[in-house]
Design goal:
The strands form four sheets. The chain has a five-stranded parallel β-sheet with strand order 2-1-3-4-5. It has a five-stranded antiparallel β-sheet with strand order 10-9-8-12-11. It has a three-stranded antiparallel β-sheet with strand order 13-14-15, with no helix packed on it. Helices cover 34% and strands 32% of the residues. It has two domains: 126 residues, Response regulator (Rossmann fold), CATH 3.40.50; 85 residues, OB fold (Dihydrolipoamide Acetyltransferase, E2P) (Beta Barrel), CATH 2.40.50. The protein is built from seven helices and 15 strands. By secondary structure, the chain is of the alpha/beta class. It starts with a strand and ends with a helix.
């Protein structure tokens, strides 16, 4: 079953598209609908559907602006609109398809096949990633494998200074002022790192204990080798001091 989200500023358009999707195909279920793109963005911070049907013409934020603000794009986006002049721009924003309202059943069936193909490809990548993670686990945690910009990259743990959460994404800060934005939540990154040298100081941060320069006890902050200032949550201060 394909869990779909619809974002359209017109409730009647949402109702119509929901009917079309569920009646044209038994493979689609409506996970959520939003007439407010701002509320939809909040939803996507903690949820990942199988696909998004997105209207373009919305008054507070058009569909393309919405996509630029959307941090999690691990699912296919289908543009829905009554106008055909946005097709090229939709492709530039990496939408997998473009449907004109009212939606034709044959077009929708083709779109569903594209959604399934897209998600199958992502599933295969995830399987490969899990295999690589298993291999790396047998290599005494010398490296971790993460997904970044559609690529699997291998990061030596000694190169990591700290990791910062960004919702469904994380940013890994490395030596030599490098950083990688990866499609993993902080808790998942934490599970990849060895406990003896990494510590989650805060809901939003994991630090490499070997890369700390200073601990400002009164202020509750760490100064890392990169000179970044990282907070230590009050409730984790005692555990942190035990670690070091």
């Amino acid at each position: 079953m394909i869990n779909a989200v619809i974002v359209d500023d017109e409730p009647k358009a949402i109702q119509s598209l929901s009917w079309e999707l569920t009646n044209f195909s038994e493979e689609i279920t409506i996970m959520e609908t939003f007439s407010s793109p701002e509320k939809a963005l909040e939803f996507f911070k903690n949820n990942t559907p199988d696909c998004l049907f997105l209207d373009i013409q919305m008054p507070t934020m058009d569909g393309f602006q919405f996509l630029e603000k959307l941090t999690n794009r691990d699912f296919p986006v289908i543009i829905t609109t009554a106008y055909d002049e946005y097709a090229i721009k939709a492709l530039k924003h990496e939408a997998i398809d473009y449907l004109l309202k009212p939606i034709d059943s044959d077009d929708l069936n083709l779109t569903i096949e594209k959604i399934k193909k897209f998600n199958s490809k992502i599933f295969s990548i995830d399987k490969l990633e899990r295999l690589l993670l298993s291999f790396n686990g047998s290599q005494t945690h010398q490296k971790i494998t993460v997904n970044s910009d559609g690529k699997l990259i291998f990061i030596h743990i000694d190169d990591i200074i700290f990791v910062q959460s960004d919702g469904n994404y994380s940013t890994i800060y490395l030596k030599n002022n490098q950083k990688k934005v990866v499609t993993k939540k902080l808790k998942d990154i934490n599970n990849l790192l060895p406990e003896n040298s990494f510590f989650r100081t805060h809901n939003s941060y994991i630090v490499n204990l070997n890369k700390i320069k200073e601990f400002l006890k009164n202020e509750g902050y760490l100064i890392m080798e990169s000179n970044h200032k990282i907070p230590v949550a009050r409730q984790r201060k005692t555990e942190f001091l035990d670690k070091i």
